[in-house]
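User: Before I run my own analysis I want an independent prediction to cross-check against. Here's the chain; please return only the structure tokens and, at the end, one sentence I can use as a sanity check.
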Amino acid sequence: VILLLNRRQMLVLFETPAGYAVFKVLDESKLQKTDNLYKHFTSPEAASNVVQLQIFEKFKDATEALASTASVLENKLNKRLKKTLKQVMLSDSYDQLGVIDAKLGALIKEKLGVNCVSNSAITELYRNIKSQASNLIGADMPAREFTAMQLGLAHGLSRYKLKFNPDKIDTMIIQAISLLDDLDKELNNYVMRCREWYGWHFPELSKIVTDPIAYAKCIKLMGIREKAVDTDFSSLLPEDVEKDLKTAAEISMGTEISEEDILNVSLLTDQIVEMFAYRTQLSEYLQNRMMAVAPNLTVLTGEIIGARLIAHAGSLLNLAKHPASTVQVFGAEKALFRAITKRQSTPKYGLMYHASLVTKAQQKFKGKISRMLAAKSAIAIRVDALREDVDGNLGIELRAKVESRLRNLETGMTYQLSGKAKDMKPVEKYVPVAGAGRIKTDDDDFALESRAQKRKIDETKTPKKGKEVKSEPEEEEVEESPKKKKKVSLVQEVEEEQMEVETVVEKKKKKKSIAVEPEEEAPTSPVKTGKKKKQAKEEPTEEAEFPVTPSSKKTKKKNKSGDSQSEPNGEAEEEQTTTPVSKKKKKKQLQAE
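Assistant: Structure tokens:
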């Protein structure tokens, strides 16, 4: 809809399914209040007071109407539209042009040099004119014709938007592959029935002639087995097979059948031969359609697998929306969900298993090849679905990559460098130089030995019970280990420190023994009270429990004057024996005082 604005008047160009109509706005002040504009278009009489028909250019046929509408949608000016605008503009000069579509207004300004304006008032006016269009145009467009034209233009415009290409229709492929699968099932049933039926008369024929079509043609030629000797099978079978057939017919173990039975069997063989001929024709048709619709997918997987994938997804566009992981397991949905529910390994292939690249791979490589084939097929499907004028060059390249991958897996050469990695220089291997090891310094040795000294001193200060301090094995280890002179001197210093610690421990023991001896010789005071008498009576028992004999005194003296390398456990025991006696005597002295 286009509004032509002038100081004195406003013209509206209204597009209909029947043609272009130009209206004159009688009262421009009503456009200022767009919210109440619909009240002026409630009836044809009220609408005629707001706008008035000026020109109506009718289309010749539906084709012209579709062309003009499509040109407007594509932001193009139709010849009929240009003619109508020029007729209106020549009648009077106009300063501005109101347009609903801003892009179309820019195009009109470029072609005709008219200033264009687009706002909400124009949109509201167009909507109200459309509600009373059949009444405002009048006799040139009746209501019934207007509705029929509108419906026909809508259908034609929808077809134009979809841009159907008869060569790219994948519905035919879906129907063809479904019929091909049904034919294969019916052929198998017919051939099996024919073998069982004719096997009563000539059972050896099924083992000699294994091809089902050749089997049916042989029955059609000879009829009963007695005629096999006089029948020529050179057009169907090789010489050795023909000779075996004739010899087997003479010694067959089958039963005799009537001519009516042979007639019915021959009719069944005719059906088999006709169905097989139609199947070959249908397969050729399917191959041609697949090369037209999806050439890259056909080259990569074959026409049968590609057609089954399209039929499984519903269309080629729907198949292009699926990822490669979904394409890989198409046809194995039941196994996939069963594996997920039972937490088992998921299937690696579905319909892809029957592809030629997967079937010729080894069993251990089928999963890898099917995964790679699905990834390449996803690329090929999207190219086939979304591009026009597609050839099969991309499919050939992708198939070559899959074949090279399969070849590398079978030969064991699975590592392959990329383009950037090939250009890089190889890193040289590090070769250590002889005699270039790490040089140890005296500081390192001193740090290590200082830690060893601390550990040995701690052991001498706090020896564990039940274990003796062994110093001789350390000396032997020092003598056995070949070290430097400095290390030997450090070890000697450690030994001297140990001897000093031992002398300090001995002095402490002597002081303790000196403190204990006078307590043993202290005289006991006479007991006066009865309680004291009881304590005196109990003393001999306690002394009996811990007797101090002269032999024990001698052992103590020996321990005092003995070597410094004495057992720490024995010294602890002697201290335990003396401590309880000394405590009790101290108590006695306190009581006597």
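Sanity check: Confidence is low (pLDDT under 50) at residues 1-8, 444-450, 462-487, 516-579.
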